[in-house]
Amino acid sequence: MLLSSLVGVALVWTLPRRYGLSAVAVLTLLSVSILSPASGLWLAGTSLLTVLIVRGYSATRHRGLLVFVASAILLTLLFVSRQTGGFFWIGGAYFTLRNMHVLIDWWMQRLRVPTTADYLKYSLFLPVLMAGPIHRLDNFQRQLRRQRLDSTNLFSGAERALLGLAQALVIPFVLRRLQYVSTRHMETLHPFLLRWIEGSFDWLILYFSFAGLTSLALGLSLMMGLKLEENFNRPWAAANLIEFWSRWHMTLSHWCRDYVFYPVAAVTRLPIVGLLLAMLAMGLWHDTSAYYVLWAVWQSLGIFLTHVTIRFTGNREAGLSGRILGTASVFAWLSLTKPMVLQFLDIFS
Amino acid sequence: MTPLYNKLTRYLSPAASSVLLAIIYAALLVLIAMFLGSRATFDLIYLDLGR
What we know:
Oligomer: heterodimer
Shape of chain B: elongated
Order of helices and strands of chain B: HHH
Low-confidence stretches of chain B: none
Strand content of chain A: under 5%
Largest sheet of chain B: none
Number of helices of chain B: 3
Helix content of chain A: over 70%
Largest interface: A-B, 31 and 20 residues
Number of helices of chain A: 15
Helix content of chain B: over 70%
Largest sheet of chain A: none
Mean pLDDT of chain A: 90
Number of domains of chain B: 1
Structural class of chain A: mainly alpha
Radius of gyration of chain B: 16 Å
């Protein structure tokens, strides 16, 4: 996929501008289909379904019903893909949310209806297929109009891709070794503490690999002249858990905020229900399992407690010591996720 | 003019920045070549995220 993306950059730079990103879309479908024919079919089918609805049914009065049925189909396919072992799936968690974002925004009339070609360029954009970000169609359309192929974008993008790839490969490897060495002689330690240490390393490994791959994707996009949404905004500088979730995997958390939290909170008038369902959506997006249901409950509890603390203490601007304490408390809460959730699962099982 | 080059030129002369940048790129490429060789590590990270 990495090599295909580089071929994509070459195509964008050599072909006439109007054909460059269309060629990338074809290349995406070819690359995915070669690696995993079922994923290729899934990607092509859901993209065509979405664009068919958005382009073909603008005049219908039953937009809501249509979006509901299409979303149910998209989510069922994602769920089925998770249950079929032995198959090798690519990028489904990302393109399912992209298609749903387009459908919901079309239903709410917040979207400029794209041409079929523009939609396929958006949906079949190779650099972001494997590890996001879950970019939005309106920004992509804006970027298509502003696409700038010049040496500044090419070299800045290449540098970011290089740094991102190195970060995703090297630092997680070192951390994994460190995790192995530090837990190797700790069999006698209480399982809860052992899981806590593992949980701490897991978050760091996830951050460096995921943020690195995001940089790789954004760097490759920039080499093609497009500036897409950032996914991380120094999450470890967050002063509390609420701030952390607005800085970590931002395109996913914004998706859950816009399409789960806001509607649920508006309908029920209970923000806590919206929060719980948004975190549940985020958890189940990672994996459909009991672990991630409890993961969502744990994160929701953390955010709720942060709200309560802020209400009682006031939202004062934290000094240096406050920020250090904030970061430490955020990391402590996150690293406790694994041992706490596994402890609950042990009790229930 | 890349972001890293701009950062380096804040502290160093343009010529020294260029040399240092070339060394950084070379080191990164060597590291990537070393770790990309271990496909298992790369696939584990990359494919697990993109499920």
